[in-house]
Specification:
- By secondary structure, the chain is α+β, with helices and mostly antiparallel strands.
- It is 66% helix and 11% strand.
- It has a four-stranded antiparallel sheet with strand order 1-2-3-4, with no helix packed on it.
- A hairpin with a 2-residue loop joins strand 1 and strand 2 (306-320).
- The chain is globular.
- The chain is built from twelve helices and four strands; from the N terminus they run ααααααααααααββββ.
- The protein has two domains: 3-290, no CATH class; 294-332, no CATH class.
- It has helices at 3-19, 21-28, 34-56, 68-91, 94-100, 103-116, 122-139, 150-170, 177-198, 206-243, 246-258, 264-286; strands at residues 289-303, 306-320, 324-327, 332-334.
- Helix 6 (103-116) packs across helix 7.
Length: 343
């Protein structure tokens, strides 16, 4: 099978593995309290990726003191986000929560715009407005009600935390994905565990802890790893486009696994989200373009009394993507465009 076809499978697999997180978490919340759930989802990812790293012998650059603020920010936000998501899942259905996860893109983009001065295209601005409109629609409690659903607000809070976390993690993009996931998992998981014990949550049966940890390893750890593998071959733009199906897969899994039957309000939000996602994918792919340039150089050879000149032409092809620019010589140039999902 061609390398790019394998990379495409990795990208879709990354989306599918993350998509199962919300419906399965909804099921496990019956047996595990929300903050404890968040703790062991991340601990499962961190510990699982520790053994995965040992198995694959993946090496990465070590974190420096200059990167410490971003690392601390990443860990703190990864303590808050899953706790908010689990609290939200207790009060809203999984299909609703899956769609509201799209608000993470809005949060990531706006933070990148205001803090890092990144430019937003017209398509992306329109997509942001549509995602916001869909999120508001999904957050109302029902027909004739002007009160927001508390569960939806918690999910939106989680999306905002992850949007800020994405911008912190981006500053560590030259590090190993396995190393970053281990740090996120272990330290954020321990932080959530401390919060769980402080608020009086208790350890559930060991079977449920193992189930939650396994889900964390699969839905967070392996999903991130497959995303990075796909990105190396496809580039950030195409990988992001494939990954954008994750919320919709989450909806499908929720309906099939939990027999959820959302109302008209949900389908209106779904339609708006689909339009917004199409716009974001088009904007993402449009930023990926290829151009070639060539340069000619010559050098002299001397053989005794004879001197002659060789002329060489080198053609370089560069591919610009949201995350990186790579040329055919294997050089990588970092850019500040685009967003990487690194829950």
């Amino acid at each position: 099978m061609k390398t790019k076809n394998v990379a495409t499978i990795f990208a879709i697999l990354a989306a599918a593995l993350y998509a199962i997180n919300i419906p399965l978490s909804k099921v496990l919340l019956v047996f595990v309290q929300p903050t404890m759930m968040a703790a062991f989802l991340y601990l499962g990812a961190g510990i699982g990726m520790f053994f995965y790293g040992k198995l694959t012998k993946e090496q990465g650059q070590k974190l420096t003191k200059a990167e410490l603020p971003y690392t601390v920010g990443m860990v703190v936000l990864d303590i808050a986000a899953p706790i908010l998501l689990m609290l939200g899942l207790q009060a809203t259905n999984s299909a609703n929560a899956s769609l509201l996860n799209n608000f993470e893109i809005v949060a990531t983009s706006l933070i990148a715009f205001f803090v890092f001065r990144e430019k937003l295209s017209r398509k992306l601005v329109l997509a942001i407005l549509l995602v916001t409109a869909a999120s508001i629609t999904l957050s109302f409690e029902g027909a004739g009600s002007f009160r927001f659903n508390n569960g939806s607000l918690f999910v939106l809070g989680a999306a905002c935390c992850w949007g800020l976390e994405n911008n912190c993690t981006r500053m560590l993009s030259n590090k190993s994905s396995v190393q970053i996931t281990k740090i996120k998992g272990v330290f954020s998981g321990l932080g959530s565990l401390i919060v769980a014990l402080v608020v009086g949550e208790v350890f559930p049966n060991i079977i449920w802890l193992l189930a939650v940890s396994l889900l964390g390893f699969v839905a967070y750890g392996l999903s991130i790893n497959f995303y990075i593998k796909a990105q190396k071959e496809l580039g950030a733009a195409k990988t992001s486009a494939y990954y954008s199906v994750a919320p919709f897969l989450g909806v499908i899994f929720g309906v099939l696994m939990l027999q959820e039957r959302p109302g008209v309000q949900f389908y209106l939000g779904l339609a708006i989200m689909i339009v917004a996602t199409v716009l974001m994918v088009k904007d993402t792919i449009a930023l990926q373009h290829t151009h070639e340039h060539s340069h000619i150089h010559c050098h002299e050879h001397s053989h005794g009394q004879l001197v002659h000149t060789h002329t060489h032409e080198h053609i370089h092809s560069h591919t610009h993507t949201h995350g990186k620019e790579e040329d055919f010589h294997g050089h990588t140039h970092e850019s500040l465009e685009g967003h990487q999902h690194t829950h």
